[in-house]
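Sorry to interrupt, but I need a hand with the structure work. Could you add the entry underneath, on a fresh line?
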Amino acid sequence: MINRDEASKLMTEMIKNKNLQKHGIAVEAIMRALCHFLKKKHFDLPKEEFNEEEWAIVGLLHDGDYELIEKDPTKHTLVTEQKLRELGEVSERIIQGIKAHHDGIKDSRDNYLEKSVYAADELSGLITACALVRPDKKLSSVTVESVLKKFPQKSFAAGAKREQILACEKELNIPLEEFVKIALDAMQNISGELGL
């Protein structure tokens, strides 16, 4: 299986924009936290369902081909899939997880990994936007309450699809407030790496 160092190298080869790289790192952190949370909640499921390294790599690489698809959303995730297959020995769960965050490629999500990346992707963008409007532009100034206050404001971070974030309740059975807390804590723990 691809390891974190190999995934990071692949991500930085494909993505040159530093903010997009940081987005991948943020979603990676959220995915690790969600894996840990859901593993405890669903202890009766097979251990393979909650492989933290798989979850993290899906988060890190989910937008890996964003700059390579030349603004053609029909190709998004497929270039990353191709590059991963060329590496060989990449788990099918990682490939399907990456594809699952994009409705246009995969319109149903089959497991907790896929459901998590779908919701986490958009939430990381909303939390980042909340940090950037703070006077100090720091994640440490962001609270769960401040994110929830901005959540219904459609003009704020308009690109962060609220219905996708709300998949946390429909598909993961995690209330929005708790989901925001998990994601915010994960991002705050790596704020230095994110430059926020």
Notes: The mean pLDDT is 96. The first helix runs from residue 4 to 14.
